[in-house]
Amino acid sequence: MKAQLDCIVCVLRQALRALRKVTEDEEIQEKILRRAMKELLEIDWRNTPFYMSYRVHRIVSGITGVNDPYKMIKKQSNDYVLGLYSRLKELVDASRDPLETAVKLAIAGNVIDFASVEKPEIENMIKKVLAGELAINDYPYLKNKVPTARRLLFFADNAGEIVFDKLLLETMIEVRSKPFEKITFVVKEEPIINDATIEDAIYVGINSLPNISLKTISYKGRNLEEDNPDLKKWFLTHDLILSKGQSNYENFDKYENVFFILLVKCSVVARDLKVNIGDAVIKYNRPRSPLARFIR
Q1: What is the pLDDT of residues 25-54, one digit of tens each?
Q2: How many domains does the chain contain in total?
Q3: Nearest to 234, CA basis, from 258, 253, 211
Q4: For 124-152, what is each residue's pLDDT tens digit?
Q5: DSSP E strand stretches across the chain
Q6: What's the rounded Cα separation, in Å, for the pair 58 and 83?
Q7: What phi, psi does 187 have (nearest 5°)?
Q8: What angle do helix axes 122-131 and 71-94 make, rounded to 10 degrees?
Q9: What are 1's strand-pairing partners?
Q10: Are 51 and 184 in the same domain?
Q11: Of the candidates 36, 64, 92, which is a domain's last residue?
């Protein structure tokens, strides 16, 4: 998905939030914002919003020397949701459709997004999503594919949220007659806002699931497929693909055979999906041909 004018303002706001977490020096803050604005003036605005965010956050890290401004917040998010885990598991086990409940909880967990929400109200969002209707509901397709899929590719989004993802993965395994042959769980290669990294995935125990492999994705350049040589192979060798959150939707919205699972938190994504801000979504990009998913 190409960036819109709204994204430019949003990226600058993200930078300001991040730099205020690591320095109170207003001269340094001004220096970073000026560098960020210069970067955004020079960058191609046809890039994805997430790529722009990555470039600006590298400026924050480079000037302050703090590689992960959200490190403490990410740990707090992981710990908080780990504390909820037993209650979440009970909700899943007691429901008439455990997989649907686990998916809805995973959507609710997408509220832990400090790019768009300063103070995520996690438990309120859980209640809202469980009680409400999905604005786009392709869950029946997912329910049909989970029991027969052999290999699962899962693009994770944020720290804290990945505890919900772990419960979803466990539930997907439980509703099958046997584990997946392979699960490839993909996180960000470098810290960007509160996006999950390998460290977060291991901390919450994602690596303990059967037949799972933790992988990373890089955003150093403008072309995801050039920066990540394995990306096409991942899409071609997995028959069930889940993409969590807005940033992954922005990056993979043109790909086929992908389930997008997210809360809509900005007007740009809302317009693209033709829904409202705050809506919960499961959207399946149905395959038309084996190679079409790579045609931009």
Answers
A1: 899 999 999 999 999 998 888 888 888 888
A2: 2
A3: 258
A4: 999 999 999 999 999 999 999 999 999 99
A5: 136-137, 151-155, 182-188, 212-217, 240-244, 258-263, 280-285
A6: 32
A7: -125, 175
A8: 30
A9: none
A10: no
A11: 64
Angle at 264 between CA 182 and CA 134, to 5 degrees: 75
| CA dihedral sign, ordered 215, 249, 255, 295 | negative
Helices (H) and strands (E) in the chain, counts: 13, 7
Domain endpoint, select from 64, 83, 108: 64
CATH number at residue 218: 3.40.50.10880
pLDDT at 292: 47
Residues 75 and 172 in one domain: yes
Are 19 and 126 in a shared domain?
A: no
Q: Which two tokens stand for residue 79?
A: 């710990």
> Which domain does 58 fall in, by range?
5-64
Residues 144 and 233 both lie in one domain: yes
Same domain, 167 and 125: yes
How much is the pLDDT for 289?
61
DSSP string, 32-83: HHHHHHHHHHHS-TTS-HHHHHHHHHHHHHHHH--S-TTHHHHHHHHHHHHH
